[in-house]
Specification:
By secondary structure, the chain is of the alpha+beta class. The protein has 3 domains: 217 residues, Heat Shock Protein 90, CATH 3.30.565; 137 residues, 2-Layer Sandwich (Ribosomal Protein S5, domain 2); 123 residues, Four Helix Bundle (Hemerythrin (Met), subunit A) (Up-down Bundle). It is built from 20 helices and 23 strands. Strand 5 and strand 6 form a beta hairpin. The radius of gyration is 36 Å and the shape is elongated. The relative contact order is 0.07.
Length: 628
């Protein structure tokens, strides 16, 4: 081996406005300083892949060291971090060409060179040598690169503080890698955490743990290297080579969960866009399921390089899905934030969301019990899509499961519901609230129960929103049992039930009196055909807002004034008939009765009386009359 005597360094100016571009990159392009490790390791992996490709035609380039590797060395005392690879390396001219101009991409040039070659698809190149390299200046006030090209007896160094110039010179091969490139970062005072073993190992495993080259870490210059990444990405392996235990371990590591995946989705898409998906549905609810930002938790990789976990691969209503997408088509360029605007990513997002929903649909058919457990955990989140994602509404309605008045506590699909529609039933009826037990005993359900009409019991907050969006299922609109006229007269009563007699003239007169007495407190008072057991209930006007939705909006301060309710009175109830018989001269008793009926309906609806003190006084007078 020959050596080269070091010559005086030659100072050159960058071919681009380095200071301006570096300032832009450091302060605008990259939002996370950890990215520099990803970029430098990506470049190192690229160099190893280039050597692998060129070694196919010239095995002598590999010499006695055919196993690619990347070694990261920490030196806390010198405040230095070194990343070294045994890849293809660079000559002095290549160093100047690759690092003298920002945004020059050695990888792109290499890909152009091998375009159309037989093994081009097998060259797992990642990163773009250029802008990514300069991310090192986010944490270093000086960067040195020493490189020796495979198959040569010369080496060279490049150094810069990133402020407009760089130096380049030949160096003695004794001070250079036997082959490949060594990048030395002289860290800034506020970047000393990158000499801590835990920080660096965690960052590398998170961002670059799946590059196709093994990565080793040395805690100190004289320490023994330990392998922290094996160079094999699980999602790139054939499914036949991956065990359930492998999937579970990866899921726990990637998702930060301690349970087992309830559903694993692993496939490779080919065609217009090529990408691999490895996704999991957790067995239990993640702690951040209802985080206010409702962000997704799918990671985006490009050719096994971690890009971001904020790309919103899946819609927000699928945020419980954990995993990753690894694309072969997305650009790995200056801005990981701007990548979200890529039309390629948009196409991937659409396809992956459709595939996840398709797999959930298959599970609902093939293993109903497993699907029900999944729905119990994530149904409330999935239903957000019913008002957020119009394009997939039909699919989501098919996936939805409900407790109903006819389900006996079991979950029912809308297909089940529609299959049990009664003669002349033109709508899917529902009741919204906050408690299933209270919903099941709501007075508004009595007329539906008497006719055997099934009613969906919707106890999640999101239900009040999606049912109000005007959708239908197989041509049947959703209609609240607490809104407008029930219009049940066309639906026959269940076997054994007999039609109720028409209201008497006295009852109709009493209903008119109640309406006059309550005045502006109600929108209307009318006889009800939805009540069979209770005396009264409250409903929303025909074109008004569902009462539960109104309560939610009012509680959130998003409603200026609530609509006046409609008081429905059961004209066949014994109490109403008794009250109708009161002497018209007993005005006080009749007025008290009118207000008490209204307050009773409010209490049954989960509200307080309009005036608790007045309610108490009226109730006391009524008791005294009853005793007296």
């Amino acid at each position: 081996m020959t050596t080269t005597t070091e010559a005086a360094p030659e100072t050159r100016s960058f071919e681009a406005d380095v200071a301006k571009l570096l300032h832009l990159m450091v302060h605008s392009v990259y939002s996370d300083k950890d990215v520099f490790l990803r970029e430098l390791i990506s470049n190192a992996a690229d160099a190893c892949e280039k050597l692998r490709y060129e070694g196919l035609s010239d095995p002598a380039l590999l010499g006695d060291d055919g196993q690619p590797r990347i070694t990261v060395t920490l030196d806390a005392e010198a405040r230095r971090l070194t990343i070294e690879d045994n890849g293809i390396g660079m000559s002095e001219a290549e160093l100047a060409d690759a690092l003298g101009t920002i945004a020059r991409s050695g990888t792109k040039a290499f890909m152009d060179k091998i375009a159309g070659a037989k093994d081009a698809q097998e060259s797992h190149l990642i990163g773009q040598f250029g802008v990514g390299f300069y991310s090192a200046f986010m944490v270093a006030d000086r960067v040195e690169v020493i490189s020796r090209r495979a198959g040569t007896d010369t080496a060279a160094s490049w150094a810069s503080d990133g402020l407009g110039t760089y130096t380049i010179q030949p160096v003695d091969t004794a001070d250079a890698p036997a082959r490949g490139t060594r990048v030395l970062l002289h860290l800034k005072e506020d970047a000393t955490s990158y000499t801590e073993s835990y920080t660096v190992e965690r960052t590398i495993k998170t961002q670059s743990g799946h590059v196709p080259v093994p990565i080793f870490l040395k805690d100190a210059p004289d320490a023994e290297p330990k392998q922290i990444a094996d160079g094999a990405a699980l999602w790139t392996k054939p499914k036949s080579e991956i065990t359930a235990e492998d999937y579970k371990d990866f899921y726990r590591s990637a998702a930060g969960q301690f349970d087992e995946p309830a559903l694993t989705l692993h496939y490779r898409a080919e065609g217009l866009h090529e990408y691999t998906v490895l996704a999991f549905v957790p067995e239990t609810k993640p702690f951040d399921l209802f985080d206010p930002d409702r962000a997704g938790r799918m990671k985006l990789y490009v050719r096994r390089v971690f890009i971001t976990d904020e790309a919103q691969i899946l819609p927000r209503y699928l945020r419980f899905v954990r995993g990753l997408v690894d694309s072969n088509d997305l650009p790995l360029n200056v801005s990981r934030e701007m990548i979200q605007e890529s039309p390629v990513l948009a196409a991937i997002q659409k396809a992956v969301a459709n595939r996840v929903l398709s797999e959930l649909d298959k599970l609902s058919t093939s293993d109903a019990d497993r699907y029900v457990k999944l729905w119990e955990n994530f149904g409330a989140v999935l239903k957000e899509g019913l008002y957020e994602d119009y394009a997939r509404r039909e699919t989501l309605l098919g996936l939805a499961r409900f407790k109903t008045t006819a389900s006996g506590g079991e979950w029912r699909s809308l297909e089940d519901y529609v299959g049990g529609l009664k003669d002349n039933q033109t709508a899917i009826y529902y009741a919204t609230g906050t408690d299933l037990d209270r919903l099941a005993t709501s007075p508004q359900l009595e007329g539906f129960r008497a006719r055997g009409i099934e009613v969906l019991l919707l106890a999640d907050q999101v239900d009040s929103f999606w049912v109000a969006s005007g959708m239908d299922y197989e041509g049947k609109p959703f209609k609240s049992v607490t809104q407008g006229l029930a219009d049940l007269s066309l639906i026959p009563l269940a076997d054994g039930e007999h039609p109720a007699p028409a209201a008497s003239e006295a009852v109709n007169g009493f209903i008119a009196f109640v309406k006059e007495t309550l005045g502006d407190a109600v929108a209307d008072v009318r006889a009800s055909d939805r009540l069979t057991e209770s005396a009264v209930c409250l409903v929303a006007p025909e074109h008004g807002m569902d009462r539960q939705l109104e309560k939610l909006l009012a509680g959130a301060g998003r409603l200026d004034a609530a609509a006046k309710p409609v008081l429905e009175i059961n004209p066949r109830h014994a109490l109403i008939e008794k009250l109708s018989g009161l002497e018209t001269g007993d005005a006080d008793a009749r007025a008290d009765a009118a207000h008490l009926l209204f307050d009773e309906a409010r209490i049954a609806d989960g509200e307080l009386p309009v005036d608790p003190r007045a309610f108490s006084a009226r109730l006391m007078r009524a008791l005294q009359r009853g005793i007296g």
